[in-house]
Specification:
This protein is an alpha+beta fold. It is globular and about 60 Å long. The strands form 2 sheets. Strands 2-3-4-1-5-8-7-6 form an 8-stranded mixed beta sheet. A 3-stranded antiparallel beta sheet has the order 9-10-11. The chain has 2 domains: 134 residues, Roll (2,3-Dihydroxybiphenyl 1,2-Dioxygenase, domain 1); 45 residues, no CATH class.
């Protein structure tokens, strides 16, 4: 039912300071961002080396859906964990079968479908389950071109081999010349 943990979401009051911390101090790469005027909040996705992701969310004005969260968590904190599913309809069926209540079903065309499980039903954590294509939310610099599964780059002492990552983006492996030759020999066994 669940493919992987996609991201954790952190609610912040001081977005500029939080962005500086995650991007400039810890090296996160910013990805997609947007603002929801109805719910009065903005969000930004960040990626780390192995494509671990986090999302910063912040209220944009009074009356944000985050107001109640900040009443309990004055400085902000973990808001939710987002889990990726290949099939939101099947996920809903599994939850119903196990008498687990979900809420907030939203569908934004083919790019995002989501439901939530309340913290009272998920051991104190708000869980978002979503169906989506992870590459749509990542910076192009960390994604291979559409339809490409690998990329080879020659470098001074060998090279690097990048593969599409099942969770979106790419994973990169550096190889010495000897390791590259060994890989070529191993790949020839597939013939």
């Amino acid at each position: 039912m669940i493919s992987r943990i996609d991201h954790i979401s952190i609610a912040v009051k001081d977005y500029d300071n939080a962005r500086h911390f995650f991007q400039n101090v810890l090296g996160a790469i910013p990805g997609a961002s947007d603002q929801d005027n109805d719910m009065r909040y903005a969000w930004q996705i960040f990626s780390f080396g192995d494509l671990s992701r986090l999302e910063l969310i912040q209220p944009t004005e009074q009356g944000s859906f985050l107001d109640n969260f900040f009443k309990k968590h004055k400085k902000g904190g973990l808001h939710h964990i987002s889990l990726q599913t290949p099939d939101i309809k099947k996920a809903k069926q599994v939850l119903k079968k196990h008498n687990i209540t979900y809420f907030g079903y939203n569908e934004y065309g083919d790019i995002w479908k989501e439901i939530f499980i309340h913290p009272k039903d998920a051991f104190g954590v708000l869980i978002q389950i979503a169906e989506f294509h992870p590459d749509d939310w990542l910076d192009p610099s960390i994604v291979l071109p559409k339809g490409k599964k690998w990329e080879v780059k020659k470098e001074e002492n060998g090279g690097s081999l990048s593969f599409t990552h099942p969770g979106g983006g790419k994973v990169r492996v550096e190889l010495t010349t000897a390791e590259a030759n060994e890989l070529v020999n191993d790949l020839q066994q597939l013939r």
